[in-house]
């Protein structure tokens, strides 16, 4: 089974930066699409960005967040200019098929908490 584990979250001050990492273990395929999402308590899960053959961003994050990968197993999310409203649990996802910003990815990590103080 494919397992995804996020790391790199933490507490930062407004205006600060963080770089999240997601490492996939198990029989992950090199062609898997990978995505980043976030979810604040009581709110719907939001799409941030996805990377596969091409890179796709939600317009809400394109100016501050960057998705990248350096192997089939490792994907990153660089976040700059963080705001208190960015506080959420950040998830990575993977699927052999294109899912874009949808929630239908086959595999999900447990999430890493990002908290931005005022």
Short note summarizing the structure:
The chain has 118 residues and is mainly β. It is 0% helix and 51% strand. It is globular.
Characteristics:
118 residues, globular, single chain, 0% helix, seven-stranded mixed β-sheet
Explain what you see.
This protein is an all-beta fold and 118 residues long. It is built from no helices and eleven strands. Strands 2, 4, 5, 6, 9, 10 and 11 form a seven-stranded mixed beta sheet that branches. A hairpin with a 6-residue loop joins strand 4 (33-39) and strand 5. The mean pLDDT is 94.
How is this fold's topology laid out?
Elements: E1 3-7, E2 10-13, E3 18-25, E4 33-39, E5 46-51, E6 55-57, E7 65-69, E8 74-79, E9 88-95, E10 107-108, E11 112-117
Parallel strand pairs: 2-11
Antiparallel strand pairs: 1-3, 3-8, 4-5, 4-9, 5-6, 7-8, 9-10, 9-11
- Low-confidence regions: none
Share of residues in strands: over 45%
DSSP strand tally:
11
Task: Tell me, rounded to a whole number, the average pLDDT.
Answer: 94
| Helix segment tally | 0
What is the structural class?
Answer: mainly beta
Looking at how many chains there are and whether they match, the oligomeric state comes to single chain
What general form does the structure show? globular
- Helix percent reads under 10%
Main sheet record: 7 strands, mixed
The radius of gyration over CA amounts to 13 Å
The ordered string of helix (H) and strand (E) elements is EEEEEEEEEEE
N-C termini distance:
40 Å
């Amino acid at each position: 089974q494919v397992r995804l584990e996020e790391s790199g979250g933490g507490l930062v001050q407004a205006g600060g930066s963080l770089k999240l990492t997601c490492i996939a273990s198990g029989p992950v395929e090199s062609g898997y699409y990978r995505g980043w999402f976030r979810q604040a308590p009581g709110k719907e899960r939001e799409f941030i960005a996805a990377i596969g053959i091409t890179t796709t961003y939600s317009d809400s994050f394109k100016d501050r967040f960057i998705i990248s990968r350096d192997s089939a197993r490792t994907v990153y999310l660089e976040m700059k200019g963080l705001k208190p409203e960015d506080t959420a649990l950040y998830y990575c996802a993977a699927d052999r098929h294109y899912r874009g910003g949808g929630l239908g990815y086959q595999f999900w990590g447990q999430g890493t908490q990002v908290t931005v103080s005022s």
